[in-house]
Amino acid sequence: RIQTQNKIIEGLKVQMLGLQEKIFRRKIKMKDEYGNEFPEWEFKNGGDLFYNATNKNHNSDLPILAITQDHGAIPRDSIDYQISVTDKSVESYKVVEIGDFIISLRSFQGGIEYSNYRGICSPAYIILKNKCEIEKLFYKYYFKTVDYIKLLNKKLEGIRDGKMISYAYFSEIPLPYPNLKQQIEIASVLHTFEEKIEIEIRILKGYSRQKQYLLQQMFV
DNA sequence: GCTCTGTAAAGAATTTCGGA
DNA sequence: TCCGAAATTCTTTACAGAGC
C-alpha cells in the first residue's frame, strides 16, 4: 500500500509539472466565467514588475529566515540544519516582508524563492518587491518552472558554486504578464493541485505510521 | 566526497566632506 | 559652488562549515 501511495504521489507530481508546462507555455488556454478566452499574454521584463528592495530597518528582533530550495523561505528554527551565525552580521541583514521574492545564491538551480514570512536574511540575497499589481502566487509558481530556471541559466557563464544572479540580470529576463484575473485563475488551479499532492503525502505518512505500529506489534 | 546554505572579504558604487 | 578624495554603503565572489 505504501508503494502504491508513493506511485500516486509521483504520478501527481509529474502531472503537476506537466500542467505547469502547459499553462506557462500557453498550450491550454483558460476561459473566464463567461466562457470567453483571455486575451494573449503580454511580456514584461523582470525589472518592470519588481524592484530591488534593500531595507535594513530592523532591531534584530525579527526571525532569521533560511532560504532553501526545498521549502522556500522558512525560519531557521524550523529546519534541522544548523548554520554558523555570527551575531554581529545579523545587524546588516535585510528585511523580508510577507510576499516578497528572494533571489538566493542558488537561484540558478532552484529558481526564485517566495517568502510566507516576515523576517530577516543575509545581505547576500536579493529581495524583490512587486512594483505593480500582480498575483504573487502566479509568479511563485512561474519562478519555479523548469523553463524559467533554464532562462536564468541561459546567459550565465561559467556556472560555479556561489554564482550570483544580479538584479540587473533578473530585470532583463522577460516575464509573462497576463491580466490579473487570469493570473489569479492560474494560481488557484496550481494551488489546488499542490494541495492535492500534500493530502496524498499526508495519507502516505499515515500508512507509514500504521506499518511501524503493526511491525512493533508483531515483535512484541 | 558531495551538496547545500551563509559568511567574510574583496571589489564597486555612492555619498559625504573639505578646500579652493 | 564645484571638484576630487575619503568614507561609507552596497554588491559580488571565494570558500567555510553542516549534514548526508
UniProtKB/TrEMBL annotation:
<dbReference type="GO" id="GO:0004519">
    <property type="term" value="F:endonuclease activity"/>
</dbReference>
<dbReference type="InterPro" id="IPR044946">
    <property type="entry name" value="Restrct_endonuc_typeI_TRD_sf"/>
</dbReference>
<keyword id="KW-0238">DNA-binding</keyword>
<protein>
    <submittedName>
        <fullName>Restriction endonuclease subunit S</fullName>
    </submittedName>
</protein>
<keyword id="KW-0540">Nuclease</keyword>
<dbReference type="InterPro" id="IPR000055">
    <property type="entry name" value="Restrct_endonuc_typeI_TRD"/>
</dbReference>
<keyword id="KW-0680">Restriction system</keyword>
<keyword id="KW-0255">Endonuclease</keyword>
<dbReference type="InterPro" id="IPR052021">
    <property type="entry name" value="Type-I_RS_S_subunit"/>
</dbReference>
<dbReference type="GO" id="GO:0009307">
    <property type="term" value="P:DNA restriction-modification system"/>
</dbReference>
<keyword id="KW-0378">Hydrolase</keyword>
<comment type="similarity">
    <text>Belongs to the type-I restriction system S methylase family.</text>
</comment>
<feature type="domain" description="Type I restriction modification DNA specificity">
    <location>
        <begin position="43"/>
        <end position="203"/>
    </location>
</feature>
<dbReference type="Pfam" id="PF01420">
    <property type="entry name" value="Methylase_S"/>
</dbReference>
<dbReference type="GO" id="GO:0003677">
    <property type="term" value="F:DNA binding"/>
</dbReference>
